[in-house]
Specification:
The chain has one helix at 2-63. It is mostly helical.
Length: 64
């Protein structure tokens, strides 16, 4: 009887460790996704500003 209980405890501990590691991987992955989303937003804002500057430069070049 005790062998079964000890085997179950060992199995439970291994499974718990496994899922804790998987949980940490998921947290890290989600954090990286949020960081990437922030970077995309920043780059998009920079692109909009550069497109405006480019449009102005094209208008100036067309005047010459």
């Amino acid at each position: 009887m005790f062998r079964f209980i000890n085997a179950f405890k060992l199995y439970y501990e291994k499974q718990r460790d496994y899922f804790e590691k998987e949980k940490q991987k998921m947290k890290t992955g989600v954090q990286k996704l949020f960081e990437a989303a922030e970077q995309v937003q920043e780059i998009t804002q920079e692109l909009v500003a550069k497109e405006k500057n480019m449009a102005l430069a094209n208008m100036e070049a067309a005047k010459v």
